[in-house]
Amino acid sequence: MQKTFTHKVLIANRGEIAIRVARTAKALGLKTVAVYSEADRFSEHARYCDEAYFIGGPAPKDSYINVDHVIAAAKKSGATLIHPGYGFLSERPHFVEACHAAGITFVGPTAESMRLMGDKITARKTIDDLGLPRVPGSPGAVKDGKEAQTFADKIGYPVLLKAAAGGGGKGMRRVDQSSEVVSAFESASRESLAAFGDGSMYVEKLILEPHHVEIQVFGDGRGGAVHLGERECSIQRRHQKVWEESPAPILEIHPNTRARMFDTALKITSHVNYAGAGTLEFIVDGDGNFYFLEMNTRLQVEHPVTEWVTGTDLVAWQLKLAMGEFTLPKIPERRGASI
Length: 339
Description:
Elements: E1 8-11, H1 15-27, E2 31-36, H2 44-48, E3 51-54, H3 67-77, E4 81-83, H4 93-101, E5 105-106, H5 111-118, H6 120-130, H7 145-155, E6 159-163, E7 172-175, H8 181-196, E8 201-205, E9 211-220, E10 225-232, E11 236-237, E12 240-241, H9 249-253, H10 255-271, E13 275-284, E14 290-296, H11 303-310, H12 314-322
Helix pairs in contact: 4-5, 5-6, 7-8
């Protein structure tokens, strides 16, 4: 007989991911709360949940990333949990802290873990402290285009200029020669500032003909962690993934690399006492060498690819962990393939 839970979860998101989280929450017997902006007043997620609350105008800054509005809706609804989905407030430490201050449990990692690994600059320092391989580049943010140019000249071209707070290809520029660095830096920094409210940039060596491989992990917040295998997302357009598959074809060629990547991912996850679902991203070259790229401290868009080959429900794991009803299982067996 399935245990009955008395919690109510507010889903601080919209669209597909809001419905996906709500579906699992309902299967666990939880009451679900949607939030919606003026633009989403008649959206499916607002009808699908048990309750729905208006949180502001159509612009995300007035609704889905307005912490005060989201917390106010949670209090009004009596929600005991907030699941952020992905995007919006899902990787914002100040939102985690706001939830805790309001007496509401955030479904995800701690603010400290987010700062250690969700911030790309801090994450690089964490990896260096652990002595693990990462893509060569600047140790932290560079102050301006001239400093970026000096560092790029030192490590050699081509390089990538990347936004410290970025994602989805925003605030990223490939640079092939020294004369292009300053203008590319200024353009990428402006784009990052507009998209993320932070124009900080760092320099990274561009690995040619790379394979982009992700390791799905889940931590218990006390140093325990398991991996759920890998996904490969090397087929991209403008730094946006268009094809995600598991297992990763490149690791079928280099099985020893797969084992080392799993060990590395678990070492990082345990080191930061990570709680919940997270994804470690790596670059793998044709010889099987791998380099840490970044960590997504949230449920990733592509998580169903992993669920299909492991038979798991990562959202159920997240919710049970947040309710104190989760015991870390053994590493799930993977069967078949998914795309």
